[in-house]
Design a protein that fits this description.
The complex is a heterodimer of chains A (about 120) and B (about 110). Chain A has about 120 residues and is mainly alpha-helical. Chain A contains six helices and no strands. The longest helix of chain A has 21 residues, at about 5-25. The longest helix of chain B has 13 residues, at about 55-70. Chain B starts with a helix and ends in a 10-residue tail after the last helix. Chain B is an all-alpha fold. Classes of the chains: A mainly alpha (about 120), B mainly alpha (about 110). At the A-B interface, helix 1, helix 3 and helix 6 of A face helix 1 and helix 4 of B.
Chain lengths: ~120, ~110
């Protein structure tokens, strides 16, 4: 089997596995706002922390580079990025798997939690 | 199994090396970027656009290369990077990664 075929298969497997795992999360929100858990943290925030919550963490697959900083990012851009992964316009396997299981409310809650509004950029 | 692992490892590192760019040269080439992302990459014109200041340079370079190859689809960025050489992309990534802004790591 060619290397390319193997990596492609692995990527698909990863994406499918993560999509299956995340799909089992309850669709209903139990927090004060849509997309939030009780206590105010966004649903799925735990999915972000393992990579984006570790300073200088690097992806290992399919390419090696530093996982982008998302805290302090433009809120609407965070939503745009998640939607692009969900639609397949961006191609990281684990991000596609995760984004596919997010509702619009989940994306908005994650953007509210991680993002910064324009006033904060004036600093 | 170990053979398969070795193959996968080889595939993961076989992407082109992420060249370190020149931030000073990047600043000279960044006027077009400034129109939407702000001169320092921390003041996007609309919240639709990302902040670039302080982002990891290898991630910025990967994003720029993906726009150029079409792996990442965006009508604006896809057009912007077409005329740029890989050296330009690396310089821009270096420049914006060295600016300070709101981007940080949060759990």
């Amino acid at each position: 089997m060619k290397i390319r075929t193997i990596t492609k298969c692995l990527g698909t497997l990863l994406a499918v596995a993560s999509a299956c795992a995340f799909a089992q999360q309850p669709a209903q929100s139990s927090g004060d706002k849509p997309g939030e858990k009780a206590g105010g943290l966004p649903r799925f925030q735990s999915m972000c922390v393992g990579c984006h919550g570790i300073p200088y963490y690097q992806t290992a697959f399919p390419q090696v580079y530093h996982v982008p900083k998302i805290a302090g990012q433009s809120r609407q851009y965070i939503v745009n990025a998640l939607k692009a992964y969900k639609a397949g316009d961006r191609s990281h396997p684990s991000m596609q798997g995760i984004a596919k299981s997010l509702s619009d409310d989940d994306m908005a809650a994650l953007a509210a939690y991680y993002g910064a509004d324009p006033a904060e950029a004036k600093k | 199994m170990s053979k398969l692992l070795a193959l996968v490892l080889a595939a993961s590192v076989s992407v082109p090396a992420l060249a370190a760019g020149n931030a000073e040269a990047g600043k000279q080439k960044s006027q077009a970027c400034a129109a939407c992302h702000g001169p320092d990459g921390n003041h996007p014109m609309t919240p639709d656009f990302p902040r670039l200041a302080g982002q990891h340079p290898d991630y910025l370079l990967k994003a720029l290369r993906d726009y150029k190859s079409g792996a990442r689809k965006n009508p604006i960025m896809g057009g912007q990077v077409q005329a740029l050489k890989d050296e330009d992309l690396a310089d821009l990534a270096a420049y914006f990664s060295e600016q300070s802004g709101t981007l940080h790591v949060k759990r």
